[in-house]
Amino acid sequence: MKKFNRTNYVKMLAIALLICFISMVGANLFNSDFGKIKVKDFSIEDANGNTIACQMYKPQNATSETPAPCVVTLHGSFDAKETQDYTCLELAKRGFVVVTMDCDGHGDSENYKTNPMDAFFKVTANPGSDFEQLSTSPGSGMCDVVNYIYNSFAFVDKEQIGITGHSLGGKMANACLAYNKIQEENGGVNQVSAVFLMGNQQLGVDGKWLDHLNYDPDNTPDSGDEIPLYYDVDYGVNAGKLDENNYQTEAGGPSTFYKSENARTFINELDSYNLQDTDEVEVGKIYKGTVHNSSEEFIRVLYQPYETHILNHYSLATTSNLVDFFQNAFKAPNYIDCKSLTIQYKWFFNTIGVVGFFMVVYAFGCILLTTKYFDELVVKEKSNIYEPPAPKGVTETIIYWVLLLAGAVIPAMFMLKLEQWIGSRLGPDFATRSLFGTKIWPQGLTLEQGMWTAAAGLVGLILFVIGYYLIGKKSGVKVEQWNMKIKTKSLVKTILLVLASVGVGYGVVGFAKYFFGVDFRFISYVIKVPSSDDLLVALRFLPLFAIFFFANAICQNLSNMVSGRKEWLNTLLMCFVNIIGLIGIWCYQYQGLIAHGIVRLDSARVMLTWPLFINLCLCTIISRRFYKKTGKVYLGALMNTVLFTIISCANTMTLVCNNWWF
User: Fold this and answer.
1) What is the pTM of this model?
2) 37-45 β-sheet, strand order
3) Percent share of the chain, pLDDT over 70
């Protein structure tokens, strides 16, 4: 058997590190507009004494002598402040001060609630006097951040503070405006001048938008003391034509939202307009007019880019729309056409960092295998690497492909039902929208996906056993050939090698964050340095993910990747088998949305599965590579378990849970 060539893996590691370095430098240069924007982390305390983590993009033109307009932005569920960097970059280039923040329970903000999204579900166009008595401050901290900026930043123009957010962040932007309008009614100041919603809607009642906030001081519906508070601010809405989560109306699916009653209500907030039932809102048009006989004019604009919900704050179209809105709402110190964007270059550099990260982990692991200490893990003879025999005859071939297809399809069939059951512990009304954790596993999304992958792994093992008795045993395959025995010493070294390799990979990620202020990311697939709390949470999730990754390594390497088939074809086929169930779910969902405007399946849970496409393909490659080097499934399976558990746990929502089980 050909011996390991350390030089080749040293070269691979050098190339990987170079890719990571290029990613760091490139992302940093574009993120700072080549030094013209200062990016700074800071934190504040909200009204309840809890820490809110923030990041500010400050352009050179923003000084106490020349205060600049400011925009505060909030991410969506399970994201973090860094995912709003494209918004921050493009606005800051144009002279805006931009502050992005972590919602409670997300990113670096304090985790102190059983559900950081509770404010989301309680905010309507009919708030009462208890509006600011939620378990979190209204707007999940956005109100506090706006207030802090208003009172503390001399380089910000107090008359030009805007707010924006994606999904959860959009709803909280609405809540922040509502809070400020109520403060204004009670003798305070409305600190918000403009609102831009990405993937969310204006406040309404039972799905119907109201052209004002219906403030009820005594919390008694229809008591006659309700106070209409009109939206005398600039307002923009970015409604994706394929938004799975929003914009279903009497006019049909999200693509026809511009024909809906809600869209007409939005424009009719201006005194100058009175659109009727047959009228359509002109997409992209800047509508201008007074609001409730105000002394100044305000704008309304509806954008409808052709994109899904999750792409809003990453796409060129939505970013362009956001820039267009705020440059019309405020006086941009450095006007640049909204179509002239550079976020695509930062996106490129962020993405190659992801590639570099996985290359670093793999190459360093291979280098360790060439050392004397880890040499015993390496298979010495090719004959010691078990290769499953190809099925013989029509019957065995049919059984092989049926079992392969079953392993791909069966888990997809119960995925959404299982996840809904896990997330519905507060009652059936929450079954399709809430994701809850437990004391053991305090991350709802990670728990749902971890439980599903574990179940999928068990299904795979059952099919593996069936395949063995129907094909393998009859062909003379013996269990001893699978090389499953492992010495305690070898197991310890396997664990050490995995920890060392993953540790080096995250060392590179930490270097990128500390010295360049960037991470490695593909859309919302983020590789970031985990906190100590993240690591403790990840330890609890390891067993769930281990069931899948070990089962998957066994099924693929000891059964499905048959001899006689080219290696690249074996790997490609198994990658496809791992994701074909997800592909089916997505095709069914989006074919209905594109063709008929109908969301057929649980919208949030379908779109939140997309990182699994990456994980389920990469795990096949990593598992196979290390299997061919060691003759055992353990190293690759453990590497996958540790890698993807940490990635999942470091970038999601963490809860304070009171229940030990579901």
Assistant:
1) 0.94
2) 37-45, 51-59, 97-101, 68-74, 156-166, 194-198, 234-238, 298-303, 287-289
3) 97
